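Issue 218. Parser rejects a valid record. Input:
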Amino acid sequence: MKIIINIDDKLSVDNVSTIIAEKLRQENIPFTFEFESYSKEYIEWERELLSRPIIIGDIAIKVQTVRNKHFKLLDNCDTENKIVLEIEPSNCFGVGTHATTQMCIKALKKHLPEKTKVLDVGCGSGILSIVSLLYGALSAYGIDIDSASVKGARNNAMLNGVADKFIVEQGNLIEGVTDKYDVVVANLLTDPLKELIPNLKNCLAENGIVIISGIIDFRKNEVEELINNDFDIVEQTKTDNWCCYVLKIK
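Output the parser choked on:
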């Protein structure tokens, strides 16, 4: 079998590997990825990218990694009137470089009601919960299947002074969630989203909204078929090869 994937040469290694993985999942082909080491070119690219804050609207994200910890992250950058976050990613997804994270942040800025309860499914580094709290949410509850992400998200909440409003626990999607939330955000990949979407209405408060991202463009039809059963699409955005949706119950 031959699979052809068109890839922008400006995409990062992580982004390219995710696109390939999604295509293999779509074709039901078993696979594993192994990276022996990062190239010198990749390390230089990461250092350049993360040696300055990531600006997403009124958010400025300082990313602390082992390889960039000696650099002054705010040099030569105007962060006046910005909300500054500090993120230590460890092995967690979600530091602001990926298009899916950026689209979710923009959607939160535009659609997050005041004084709301937020559920962050697959919270990774906790960045979307922390952004929600800094934007005025009353509380956030994060869930991630990975224990390292749970630990990292708690640490990031403390770094940004919102630990008292953020609870994060280990779990699979929304299993065991009994509360209702005004906003549910899920930045996942297509397969877990397909499992999650039919159950989302069970944890959504009246007039609540859902923000989902992590959908590669060539698999969006699979997701939209499930969305259309229970939700109206309020907004759809696309960056690079990735899609983001804002939804409301029909």
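Fixed in the parser; the record now loads. The radius of gyration is 18 Å.
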